[in-house]
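explain this chain.
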Amino acid sequence: MRFLRMVSALTNRAYVVHVISTAENPLQHPNLRWHRIGAKFPSPLKDMLYFLTFLPYSLYVIIFLDAKDIIAFGPIYAFLFLPASFCAKCRIYCMVRGMLSDEYTYQGRNHLLRSIVAIAERVGLSFSDRIIVVSQTLAERIVRRYGVQEEKIVHLPNEIPKVPAEEVDSEFGFRIWKECFPEEGLRIFTAGVITPIKNYEMLIEAVSLLKIPCHICIAGKPAFDVDKRYFNKLRSFVRNYGLEKHITWLGWVSRAKVLGVLKASDLFISTSHHEGMSNIVLEALALRVPCLSKNTPEALELLKEKTLTFETAQELAETIERFYSKKAFSQTVIEASNQARERWSFDWEAKLIQTLEG
């Protein structure tokens, strides 16, 4: 979604934009040139074909179509663009939303793969002319781990999104909560790909400690085999704790439905070990749903207030109970969430153009 917003913003500013992708072009603009690779092939063959043909396509675009500015969505793409960039005078802007090698650690990938990815990240970041990051925490990690010059890094955070009423399936959200939890109590929501980095076991353990009426809805599904094994482990935890009636797995649902359930919730909780800058937290803030998050550097940068963070399942359970039973504390959480919303409300597309043209 943010990638398409970036493309749209650039084409609207009269830039001619070339996109190399396996996906079909969802945008129509006279300044957009969409180069689709491997469209007729099934995955994973399509993905393999994409990486095999990425270099000749990028060479073609840079040398013959005179593309002088390259935007790489991640350090791996910056690495893949390097051979093409050496053949022509151009600049690489590397947009970093998260570190793949960090994520692979949580996904249980083998050491060799993590090492290869880390090397590619180092090379891609080192040769990029400018690195655009979503958080200062991520910038500090890049400098500390890879020795990248701070002067090369620009901060372009995600913003509080505008969420029109027509993009929120409120009817679905209220229906889900009515079916899952018809009685009085606390309605808690979280969402994201079901993967070890999301640390959902902490949320399940916290729920097992609660002595208040509440229910958790979790939207999302596993992506890879390691995620499926993790999901099976989570469902075993739910059974072992006897929480089947307190937790509902929604699976994959559309964004409008996710926002509908979120809007009808009392509290949003993120237990992730690591996020670049969480879009779902920003969407919760946009819908005026108070948020709690695991105490990570990224979460503190986003939410600022330690009141909105927790370290352990026990602390999370205590915070949830205080939110439910202590009106003064719940008001503090609501006000701190509102302040976070105000802090990250800005025109992302205008800031993007400023960042690229500055």
User: Anything to note?
Assistant: The radius of gyration is 22 Å. The first helix runs from residue 2 to 12. The chain has two domains: 2-157+347-357, 165-343. The CA atoms of residues 4 and 274 lie 24 Å apart.
